[in-house]
Design a protein that fits this description.
The protein is an alpha/beta fold. It has helices at 12-24, 39-50, 64-68, 90-93, 109-121, 153-156, 168-177, 182-190, 210-222, 226-237, 239-252, 258-263, 274-287, 293-300, 305-318, 326-334; strands spanning 9-10, 29-32, 53-58, 71-73, 79-81, 96-102, 123-124, 127-128, 132-139, 160-164. 47% of the residues lie in helices and 12% in strands.
């Protein structure tokens, strides 16, 4: 029997699919996840894919009046509330959209109470949410030692609760689409357990997370001076992960050109060091295309099975069309017991 206290975690692809379903039927979702897993990114991604407008409100930074608006007196001496400009307006913001209340359980109780009315009644005071807009929210888990307040049960009961877990394969697919540099993707193939390392009891300010690895990608791509590269990376993912990444980068930067392997896949050397082989597989996967996958498959056959899977799955995630090539179909048939 499933423990009543367990939750069903979903990866980013499953979260996105669930949000699309809930948005279509205008059911509010609350997305739970530890810091840095990409809660706000996946919400924005869903809005973009649906062609919806997107408004992101960080409730932890709000006072109750920021949502409800300021009172004003009309010519008849009646008090009305001036609608805040950051709430959706159909004429200005479009007919369909997602209003995302981020860091909701980090907001003061009075702000959460204002959000309760917005979610329950699709309005706040005299304001009414446009018909085509859906409210979703997100927050860190209460055990993560972030700034959180316990959510009132009547408010919690208004949401469909989704629990965001970290999944390397889903992140890798996203990373290719987001143009994360090859070096970072290849390193996390080599050390997948470093994709997300969050210990609430640790005093370290920087730690590995899907969000911080994207930052690292931007830092390495910028080509900082070698004297400050470690400090910049350590300030993003912590000292231990930064030291491992820099060691990997030294290997990666000394690799032969992937083009050399593609020119002679049957004769090119095969590294024996695991980190070097992972680095080479990552670089080759980033080069994959329908026209060269036959050569990638030839090289794959010369390396151990776990590296073959890394190389072929990386190629598919970078260029899905390679699945239609004869070389992929033949390789997949031979390796069905270890493949994707």
């Amino acid at each position: 029997m499933r423990n009543a206290n367990t939750t069903t975690e979903m990866n980013s692809i499953q979260i996105a699919d669930s949000l699309k379903t809930l948005t279509a039927i205008q059911r509010p979702a609350f997305l739970w996840g530890k810091p840095g897993v990409g809660k706000s990114s996946v919400m924005k991604q869903v809005a973009d894919e649906l062609g919806y407008s997107f408004i992101d409100i960080r409730l932890s930074q709000y006072d109750p009046v920021d949502l409800r608006g300021l009172p004003k007196v009309n010519g008849n001496g009646e008090t009305h509330w001036a609608t805040p400009a950051n709430l959706p307006n159909e004429k200005r913001d479009g007919k369909n959209g997602i209003l995302f209340l981020d860091e909701m359980n980090g907001a003061p109780q009075l702000v959460q109470a204002s959000a309760y009315q917005l979610i329950l009644d699709r309005g706040l005071g005299e304001y009414r949410l446009p018909d085509g807009w859906t409210v979703h929210a997100a927050g860190n888990r209460e055990g993560d030692k972030g700034v959180t307040s316990r959510m009132p049960l009547p408010l919690a009961n208004r949401f469909v609760h989704l629990f965001f877990g970290v999944d390397n394969a889903a992140w890798k697919k996203w990373a290719f689409d987001a143009d994360v540099i090859t070096e970072v993707i290849a390193f996390l193939d080599f050390r997948p357990e470093l994709l997300s390392v969050f210990d609430p009891s640790s005093g370290e300010k920087a730690f590995p997370s899907p969000r911080s690895w994207e930052f690292v990608s931007d830092i390495v791509r910028a080509g900082p001076d070698a004297a400050v590269e470690y400090a910049l990376i350590a300030g993003t993912i912590g000292q231990a992960a930064a030291a491992e990444l820099l060691g990997f980068l030294r290997i990666f930067r000394q690799l032969p050109s992937p083009d050399t392997v593609l020119l002679d896949p049957k004769g090119a050397s095969v590294p024996t060091d695991p980190a070097t082989l992972y680095a080479l597989c990552g670089a080759l996967a980033r080069k994959a295309s329908q026209s060269n996958f036959d050569r990638i498959a030839q090289y794959a056959e010369r390396i151990p099975p776990e590296y073959q899977v890394c190389l072929v799955t990386g190629s598919v995630q970078h260029e899905p069309e390679v699945q239609h090539t004869r070389a992929f179909i033949e390789w997949n048939s031979k390796n069905a017991d270890v493949m994707i």
